[in-house]
Amino acid sequence: xxxxxxxxxxxxxxxxxxxxxxxxxxxxxxxxxxxxxxxxxxxxxxxxxxxxxxxxxxxxxxxxxxxxxxxxxxxxxxxxxxxxxxxxxxxxxxxxxxxxxxxxxxxxxxxxxxxxxxxxxxxxxxxxxxxxxxxxxxxxxx
Length: 142
Description:
By secondary structure, the chain is an alpha+beta fold. The protein is about 40% helix and about 20% strand. It contains five helices and five strands.
């Protein structure tokens, strides 16, 4: 049995909240303006993109300083975001579920019929206990 579940793209408040969630445990040294810039520049992206952004910002910080992670700054975030939005990263963005071309301002229509994408949950009978269904998510990107 397949079930299609629409997962919309996060709006600005949701992107801010996702940033907070994905940065838990990361020693941030960012200003409100740094966070606002990330939220503004990531319009039209998925939650997965924001998670990857934080991962890459941490890698930027680690590459800059030898030793353990000390802090992730606004400059690290900006460089990581520049890299993800670069035209050479189109495949990465597609794998992260980001619809369309992110190099310019967001288009009005995002994906098929205005939807950011469709998540398909494939349930299969079986597993460790009879009657237990397992859902396997996969994503379709326009």
